[in-house]
Design brief:
Helix content: 55-70%
Structural class: mainly alpha
Strand content: under 5%
Number of helices: 4
Largest sheet: none
Oligomer: single chain
Low-confidence stretches: none
Radius of gyration: 19 Å
Order of helices and strands: HHHH
Distance between the termini: 23 Å
Shape: elongated
Length: 119
C-alpha cells in the first residue's frame, strides 16, 4: 500500500514548483511579444541565433505543458482527497508504487499508460 502522506507531499511540492514557473513563462511570452512588436528586424532571416518567433513558440509550448501538468497534479490531489488515489482509472487495479514514484500524478496503471492514455 502506497504511503499516501508521502505522495501528497510530493504532489504539493510539484504543484508549488509549477505554480512558481507559470508567471515566469508568461513574462517570457510577454517579453517576446513586446520585442516582436517593437522591432522591424526580419527575425526569420537573422543570422544571430534563435529568432523571436522561435523563442515565443518555445515559451508558449512550455506554458501549455506546465499548465497541463498542473491540471494533472490537481486531479491527483483530488483523488487523494476522495480516497481513489493509486487506483487505475481504467481498470480499477492498484497502480504500482514504482509507477507512482515516477509519475505521482498518473491516474493509470502501467498497462493502460502504455496504450497512450496515461502519458
Amino acid at each position: 500500500m502506497p504511503d499516501f502522506d508521502r505522495f501528497h507531499a510530493l504532489l504539493e511540492e510539484e504543484r508549488e514548483r509549477r505554480m512558481a514557473l507559470l508567471p515566469a513563462l508568461r513574462a517570457d511570452i510577454e517579453a517576446a511579444n513586446s520585442a516582436r512588436q517593437d522591432s522591424n528586424v526580419d527575425d526569420e532571416h537573422d543570422p544571430e541565433g534563435a529568432t523571436i518567433a522561435f523563442e515565443l513558440s518555445q515559451a508558449a509550448a512550455l506554458l501549455k505543458q506546465s499548465s497541463a501538468g498542473l491540471d494533472q497534479i490537481e486531479a491527483a490531489l483530488a483523488r487523494l482527497a476522495a480516497g481513489t488515489y493509486g487506483t487505475c482509472a481504467e481498470c480499477g487495479e492498484p497502480i504500482a508504487e514504482g509507477r507512482l514514484e515516477a509519475r505521482p500524478w498518473t491516474p493509470f496503471c502501467i498497462r493502460h499508460a502504455s496504450s497512450g492514455r496515461g502519458r
